[in-house]
Design goal:
The complex is a heterodimer. By secondary structure, chain A is mostly helical. Chain A has helices spanning 7-38, 45-62, 67-89, 99-120, 148-169, 172-182, 184-189, 194-220, 224-240, 246-267, 284-298, 321-339, 344-361, 363-369, 377-390, 397-418, 423-440, 468-490, 493-503, 505-510, 515-535, 548-561, 566-585, 590-601, 611-619, 626-644, 650-664, 668-673, 677-695, 698-701, 705-727, 749-758, and strands at 138-141, 144-147, 275-276, 279-280, 453-454, 540-541. A two-stranded antiparallel ribbon of chain A has the order 1-2. In chain A, strands 3-4 form a two-stranded antiparallel ribbon. In chain A, strands 5-6 form a two-stranded antiparallel ribbon. In chain A, a hairpin with a 2-residue loop joins strand 1 (138-141) and strand 2. Chain B is 38% helix and 25% strand. Chain B has nine helices and ten strands. In chain B, helix 3 crosses helix 4 (110-121), helix 3 (94-104) runs parallel beside helix 5 and helix 4 packs across helix 5. Classes of the chains: A mainly alpha, B alpha/beta. Chains A and B meet through helix 19, helix 20 and helix 32 of A and helix 2, strand 6, helix 3 and helix 5 of B.
């Protein structure tokens, strides 16, 4: 009893807890302000704080600027500018896109900022320490000494609370902000300017994130990961405030801070042991905010069915069997054909690409079809790897089946509490799950005992899969098979239900569809496929590969590739694998590859259907024209034959196959259409391009691999589009008046709405 | 009696959107619900289909109290609806929109069911187009076909004729009469008075959340309170 009444100790831990809570509160307040005014939940909010902390460190400690100057420049100038620019140039373009796209763009921003920080401030470099404000100074308070830094932190939180209250209720900008939150359209009709308000909110949010980042770095030093993951703790606080109420957000933040410090002071190692039933509880303290987040999410009231479907800009088509089968066969054939030409390092990279592609594929039914975003594909892959390594059978097909079933079951169980949620809440719940598994499951002796485990290669009777080359072929076959399963799913009644779930929950429910059961099915299928990405690795793996942060680029590139199609998953996986290829080929490009995924992702607002849809558009004219398809395949085979016989070099093969596939094949239908001056000149141009690609020895002509890749891109984008121009295949807008198309009466409002929707005007 | 509403009240914040509304839908009849914009018609539909729960009152279908039943179970018991703001599955084909409903309801040969229903509502030749590309009029008819695919006992139609041309409206009227003749209870919210007067057996008038008149179309048309509230002429 006496120990509990130790007032000094209680006070100490209360103050520590409150000052931690103060940091959570500041960052969470920024999150709430941006979310309510722009409707975009910024997953990169913590990353903003992280970048701000690093920038401040650069000015203050590396360059020795006085603290006030550094603070003003970072918090009052750079952060708000960055926030405003983010809103203006990235987020504003996202109107009329689904929540999946909006969240993914913030994931892209997250990934980009992470890459940027790693680039400018490499983690291995030793740095001058990040000192607290007034390091070493303390104030006596009720018998204990409190550092000035903590006092300042607490004061900042109080000031932020007061300032936000003043801005929201007293200032003109704040009143407009609240008006926009209540009814965006009405506010706009009354002369409010929602865009400008959103920009202001983003500026404010970035400033708050920066403040929190600088304060936290003083406590914990400059480490990228803890700083960006801080945002998860902030999510918990913001969710406790239901993403709307600032007072509740502050209360939630204080609660989280206190829980953390009381756990440290009173429970850790005493009441709660460090191991239980042989399992380590080391990760428990760091998991508290995540557990709170999970409980808060599950306790949220069920969101009402939203009536009034928003019409989105994304367009997806039902996959056709003939194209899908052809694609599967071509993929495997292509991999077999080139696998002999790859070096060992490149083979391993391609294997990696397929692993990512399968992880991305797991998002197709869940995110692409059913419209539910998961931020944990790599977590399920990790569970799949563990299951494959631990289940009996030493990697037999049955072991694989067992791993898939177990992980699918886990997926369904995890989904259950999260299902009442939608959109951003669901995504957060999966993020919380991912972090929880990393902290509490992957660090156990029973899972990754020595830091890494050996996942056995899939054992197929009569086939020896030992070499990297055969593993690569196996993975391509696995991807093709899984891809065909996805196509079958999409064309099945369940597939139609998943689409219905995405397109209109209100209609689906009022037709008798059990939304929960359908979502559970989607989650289970997705988890099962993700399990394959882990189970088929056939190599040593470590828990870091399945960390929450590893899931982000997978989600991002799946959406960039086109999350509603198998081809998109392949493209996304290969892009991710490819950004690694870039690192191997051209060390100078390492840094570019770090920010590349993010840079690609933030352009999603322009093309929300994904890159594969855009590429597919080029090949659509080939559909069903088997003669032309055979020509296309024959050309590819011919190029391979030349390389295989050593007539052309490997680099020339890469150039020729790229030019053939991306430059010549899309133009084949137009070439075959007629025989005139245009087609002849285009034909000559394309043939010359092919000859140049195949017979220039690019390996010696261009010095480094990095430059070769850039030249490759330039060559492909010169030959194809010029050929297209020669054939006049590009669409032109025809001039015409309404009379010309037989329009005589005025349009009704509904027809205007209809027309606006079709031409993509956002209502 | 197919469906009964007993003193339904719904309030949003402090505003009574629907206040003490009681009415009954009978099999074989088209029941109309009219009223000025904001009278609470769509809110009442949302209460019947389970999208919002009423603050008080009960929804009863064939003697079963459905007041706290979730939307999908109501649908399985035979309540189907269309939406004023279209809720088609935009990325599915027109045929698949109807087919998926037939599949959810567990019907045999859902593709055949869907094709027949599209023919019944008069959408032919567009079965394979993507639903998002339809004009408003056609989209409304597809919503009707989709609702019919679950073989409902009660069909709620929220302004099905808006966006339809004259011919389509006439055909819709005939369709509704035919459905009623087959024993369906049809509940129609509509602004097209000609259609309402033409097809409804019973008419209820809602104003500011209250029922101000009920009866046959002829009686309601001459009711002074209706003329005052709805047409704005004294």
């Amino acid at each position: 009893m006496l120990a509990l009444l130790d007032v000094d100790k209680l006070l100490t831990f209360t103050i520590i807890g409150l000052s931690t809570g103060a940091i959570y509160a500041i960052i969470a307040a920024g999150l709430v302000v941006t979310y309510t005014t722009s409707g975009i939940f910024n997953l990169a909010h913590g990353a903003t704080g992280m970048l701000a902390a690093f920038t401040y460190w650069q000015f203050r400690f590396a360059w020795g600027w006085p603290a006030p100057v550094a603070l003003v420049v970072v918090l009052l100038m750079l952060c708000p500018l960055f926030g405003a620019a983010t809103e203006r140039f990235i987020m504003r373009g996202l109107k009329g896109t689904t929540e999946v796209i909006r969240l993914t763009v913030t994931v892209a921003l997250f990934a980009g900022m992470l890459g940027l920080a790693n680039w400018i401030w490499p983690p291995d470099g030793s740095r001058v320490a990040f000192r607290r404000f007034f390091e070493g100074n303390t104030v006596p308070l009720g018998g204990i000494n409190v550092s000035w830094h903590r006092v300042i932190t607490l004061a900042c939180a109080v000031l932020v609370a007061a300032a936000l209250r003043y801005i929201m209720f007293r200032s003109r900008a704040g009143v407009t902000m609240r008006a926009v939150v209540d009814d965006r359209d009405l506010a706009e009709l009354n002369g409010g300017r929602p865009d400008r308000v959103a920009m202001l909110a983003w500026a404010l949010g970035a400033g708050l994130a920066g403040l929190a980042g600088v304060l936290l770095a003083g406590e914990q030093q400059l480490n990228i990961e803890p700083l960006v993951l801080l945002v998860i703790n902030a999510y918990a606080a913001a969710i406790l405030g239901r993403l709307r109420s600032l007072p509740w957000t502050f209360a939630g933040a204080a609660l989280l801070g206190l829980l953390d410090s009381y756990y440290l002071g009173y429970l850790d190692g005493r009441i709660i042991p460090s191991t239980m039933f042989g399992f380590s509880l080391n990760g428990l303290r760091a998991s508290i905010p995540i557990i709170v987040l999970f409980i808060a999410l599950v306790a949220m009231p069920v969101s009402r069915l939203r009536v009034g479907a928003v019409r989105f800009r994304e367009k997806h088509r039902e996959p056709v069997w003939s194209t899908s089968l052809l694609g599967a066969v071509l993929l495997v054939t292509f991999v077999i054909a080139i696998s002999g030409m790859l070096t060992r390092a490149n083979t391993l990279l391609a294997i990696n690409g397929f692993v990512f592609a399968i992880a991305a594929l797991s998002l197709v039914p869940l995110t692409g079809y059913a419209g539910q975003l998961s931020l944990a594909p790599m977590t399920f892959a990790g569970l799949g790897a563990i299951a494959m390594a631990k289940l009996p059978g030493n990697g037999s097909i049955l072991t694989l089946a067992g791993a898939i079933l177990i992980v699918a079951g886990i997926g369904a169980i995890v989904a259950l509490p999260a299902l009442r949620l939608s959109g951003v809440y669901l995504a957060l719940a999966t993020a919380a799950f991912a972090v929880l598994v990393s902290k509490l499951v992957f660090n156990q002796r029973q899972t990754f005992q020595t830091g890494n485990i050996d996942v056995p290669t899939l054992a197929i009777p009569f086939v020896d899969i030992g070499s990297p080359r055969s593993r690569l072929i196996l993975l391509s076959v696995a991807f093709a098979v899984l891809g065909l399963c996805i196509v079958a799913l999409r064309r099945s009644p369940l597939g139609r239900r998943l689409i219905a779930l995405k397109d209109s929950q209100a209609a689906a429910a009022t037709l008798g569809m059990n939304l929960t059961a359908t979502k559970v099915a989607a989650f289970a299928i997705s988890a099962g496929i993700a399990a394959c990405a882990g189970a088929l690795v056939g190599d040593k793996v470590s828990p870091q590969q399945y960390d929450f942060l590893q899931s982000l680029p997978v989600v991002l590139l799946a959406v960039v590739g086109g999350v509603a199609s198998v081809a998109g998953a392949l493209l996304g996986g290969m892009l991710l694998g490819g950004s690694l290829v870039l690192v191997i080929l051209a060390p100078a490009m390492t840094n570019i590859s770090k920010v590349l995924p993010g840079a690609i992702g933030i352009t999603l607002g322009r093309n929300p259907s994904g890159a594969s849809e855009q590429i597919a558009e080029n090949f659509r004219a080939l559909a069903g024209r088997w003669g032309l398809i055979s020509v296309a395949v024959a050309g590819g085979t011919g190029v391979w034959f030349l390389a295989n016989r050593g007539i052309i070099s490997n680099w020339s093969f890469v150039f020729a196959i790229a030019v053939w596939t991306l430059g010549v094949v899309p133009n084949l239908p137009a070439l075959a259409e007629r025989f005139d001056r245009r087609t002849v000149s285009a034909g000559i141009w394309l043939a010359a391009g092919m000859a140049a690609a195949a017979f220039i020895d690019w390996g010696t002509a261009v010095g480094s691999s990095g430059w070769r890749l850039l030249v490759l891109i330039a060559v492909v984008f010169t030959i194809g589009p010029i050929g297209e121009r020669l054939l006049d295949r590009s669409p032109r807008v025809r001039p015409g008046s309404p009379d010309a198309i037989g329009l005589t009466d005025d349009l009704t409002p509904l027809e205007v709405e209809d027309a606006e929707r079709r031409i993509g005007v956002v209502l | 009696m197919a469906l009964e509403l007993k003193s339904i009240s719904v309030s949003f914040g402090g505003v009574m959107a629907v206040s003490e509304v009681s009415l009954a839908l009978e099999p074989g009849r088209v029941t109309g619900l009219i009223g000025p914009n904001g009278a609470g018609k769509t809110t009442l539909f949302n209460v019947v289909s389970g999208i919002i729960s009423p603050n008080s009152g009960r929804v009863i279908l064939d003697g079963h109290d459905l007041t706290s039943t979730p939307p999908h179970r109501r649908a399985r018991r035979g309540v189907a609806r269309t939406f004023q703001r279209l809720e088609l599955f935009g990325s599915l084909s027109v045929l698949d929109n109807v087919r998926v409903a037939a599949e959810i309801a567990g019907r045999e040969r859902p593709d055949v069911v869907a094709a027949n229903l599209l023919e019944q509502v008069g959408i032919t030749g567009r079965a394979d187009s993507v639903a998002a590309d339809l004009s408003t009029g056609s989209a409304r008819l597809v919503e009707v076909a989709r609702a019919l695919a679950i073989q409902p006992k009660v069909l709620l139609l929220d302004e099905p004729a808006s966006g339809l041309d004259e011919d389509e409206t006439l055909r819709l009227g005939r369709l509704l009469r035919g459905l009623a003749a087959d024993g369906l209870a049809v509940f129609l919210v509509e602004h097209d008075m000609e259609l309402v007067m033409d097809v409804c057996d019973v008419l209820h008038v809602l104003d500011l959340g209250r029922l101000i008149a009920s009866g046959s179309p002829d009686v309601v048309r001459r009711d002074p309170a209706v003329v005052q509230a709805y047409l704005g002429v004294a």
